[in-house]
Amino acid sequence: MWTAVPGLVHLCNHAPDIAAMDLFVVPTIGFDLLYVLVLVRLARRDLVWINITTHPTASGTEKRCPASNSR
């Protein structure tokens, strides 16, 4: 069954290395905005990394994210 779909075989072989990323915007009681970035490893649903900031930047996120430093 698995050999009939080559893309599915590739997906199953690399499943432990696949992660999901989500950005939430959370309003506070003082009407400020907090930005929450979450990385989750999909194979075991492990929380890899979470960060909360009031002023997100791409360079700041790249510096603090452990997944971007593992190259």
Strand content: 35-45%
Tertiary shape: elongated
Share of helical residues: 10-25%
Strand order of the largest sheet: 1-2-3
Kindly provide the radius of gyration, computed on alpha-carbon positions and rounded to a whole number of angstroms. Answer: 17 Å
Number of strands: 3
Distance separating the two termini = 34 Å
What is the succession of H and E elements?
A: HEEEH
> Structural class, judged by helices and strands?
alpha+beta
What is the helix tally?
A: 2
Biggest sheet: strands, sense, closure?
3 strands, antiparallel
Mean pLDDT: 79
The quaternary structure here is single chain
- What are the low-pLDDT stretches, counting only 5+ consecutive residues below 50? none
What is the compact description of this entry?
The protein is of the alpha+beta class and 71 residues long.
What does this molecule look like?
The chain is an alpha+beta fold and 71 residues long. The chain has a domain of 38 residues. A hairpin with a 5-residue loop joins β1 and β2. The longest helix has 8 residues. It starts with 5 loop residues before the first helix and ends in a 7-residue tail after the last helix. The mean pLDDT is 79.
What's the helix and strand layout?
Layout: H1 6-13, E1 19-27, E2 33-41, E3 46-53, H2 58-64
Antiparallel strand pairs: 1-2, 2-3
Notable characteristics:
3 strands; alpha+beta; 21% helix; elongated
